[in-house]
Amino acid sequence: MSETQSHLRSLERSRDSTRAENRPGVFSLRGRERDLLDSVFAPLHAGTTEIVLDLMERAQLPWRGAFLEIGCGTGVVAVTAALGCCAPVVASDSNAEAVENAALNARRHGVADGVRAVHSDLFAQLPPGQRFDTVVWSSPYVRAPEDFRFGAPLERAYVDPGYRAHRRYVAEAPDWLTADGRALLHFSRRGDLDGLHRIAAETGRHLRPLAKFDVLDRGDVVQHQLVEIRADGTP
Prior knowledge:
Layout: H1 3-16, E1 26-29, E2 32-35, H2 43-46, H3 48-58, E3 67-70, H4 76-83, E4 89-93, H5 96-108, E5 115-119, E6 132-138, E7 142-144, E8 159-161, H6 164-172, E9 177-188, H7 193-202, E10 205-217, E11 220-231
Parallel strand pairs: 3-4, 3-6, 4-5, 6-9, 7-8
Antiparallel strand pairs: 1-2, 9-11, 10-11
């Protein structure tokens, strides 16, 4: 599939997710009810939110210490981290309504005191001295053309023009870690994996695969994987 076909298909999915039948005000995931606001990524429609949790479990990563979720959406991963004894937990998103949504779900599950929802484009609005034991982003792994312009906030959860956000995340995420922290990225074969490796090489990083599995997605078998971003010179 060409880059253009791929990103147009993802944009079609983003539009489909706004239909009323795909957007319940409250949804259930992993035995817990969650609130869903109007312009926020719908986990049940795409399925990738639960895939992130599955990948972290397969990689046997501990829920411990300071935790940052980039692109938090409804805050499922951040709230799961807080319920799993991570502290402090920060949920960051460039969509202001997603920030509100994550805070709403933190209150729903009794962890509002432990989850701080932040309106931020990746790391831009985080305190410079803050460090985390885990940073994770379930990225919009489909590459859109460099000159693509977003028409709605929800589209940012589906495509990344020219992989500009991926470049920033790969370059910056390791700088936000504690000494033994991990910077994680959920990616998919629907994305440009070779391009991601080129970005890592160009920014002095390398990618270490931690877990992967195949998912049947609307008739296609798609591999999802969790990779760790490490600075060159680290094993």
